[in-house]
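Input (structure):
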């Protein structure tokens, strides 16, 4: 299994504490499939997860910074607001089938909002 930089660091922490993935996921309050997807780079690292890892495993400031940098390096998706990006939401919506075929997913409108917002998730290629 290929790991991201973040996945490698988390795996080292697990091994250092004689834990398997399930033990660490439970300790961090995560479901095993979700934690596995984070470790393998299929899901982005939630910001609060780094804080939980640092607290649970008493990591140093340097180790925390290394985790933060690895999490950013391991990102597989970015959320972009078309409002901020200057893309017309109506045009985007009319093009969604074509964009979906190209690996772009969408959400329109934002849940619980009267504003018309479109978010685009663009999968990045793993190197």
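Output (sequence):
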């Amino acid at each position: 299994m290929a790991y991201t930089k973040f996945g490698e660091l988390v795996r080292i922490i697990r091994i250092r504490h004689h834990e398997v993935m399930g033990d660490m996921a439970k300790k961090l309050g995560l479901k095993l499939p979700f934690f596995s997807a984070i470790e393998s780079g299929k899901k982005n690292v939630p910001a609060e997860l780094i804080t939980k890892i640092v607290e649970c495993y008493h990591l140093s400031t340097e180790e925390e910074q290394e985790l933060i940098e690895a999490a950013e390096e391991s990102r597989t998706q970015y959320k972009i607001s078309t409002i901020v990006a200057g893309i017309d939401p109506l045009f985007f919506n009319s093009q969604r089938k074509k964009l979906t075929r190209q690996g772009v997913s969408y959400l329109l409108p934002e849940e619980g909002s009267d504003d018309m917002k479109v978010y685009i998730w663009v999968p990045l290629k793993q190197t």
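Notes: The longest helix spans residues 61-73. Residues 106-112, 114-118 have pLDDT under 50 and may be disordered.
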